[in-house]
Amino acid sequence: MTTFNLRVNGKPHTVDTDADTPLLYVLRNDLQMNGAKFGCGLGQCGACTVMLDDAAVMSCLVPVSVVGERAVRTVEGLGTADAPGVLQRAFIEEQAAQCGYCIAGMIMRATELLEQSAAPTDDQIREHMMPNLCRCGTHMRILRAVRRAADTMHAGPGSSTSSTSSAGAKA
Description:
alpha+beta, 5 strands
């Protein structure tokens, strides 16, 4: 066992675990942050996606020993049930979740995209979101949610931009 000091969602945490323990297990088991889900354990589905500094990573593949001083962000750090963040609100408004299992990972992958590009095209959204899988097939709603969030963020605080223009987008 080794002691690791992590910064998750802006808060310091100390955990004692094996160096090769996946970050996903530390988040869920030690820190009780259950937004990131165990999907495949192989980095093929994206249900466990979190941000490590400015990069979306599949936390099932990241040993806690490589996190070091880097900031970890999870879906819990983007907002709350009472005050959802922009992306969370867009996913709710577009009813992008069916079973909901993939949604936290989808939101974190979209976070990376919108931090890199203020106004991505639908093709850029599709390409960027491709590593994350949705078994329920809500891809069109996910695309609309990311577009809605981008439009809202681009319009600035206090605006209420609708995403009706993306309603006819192609998957």
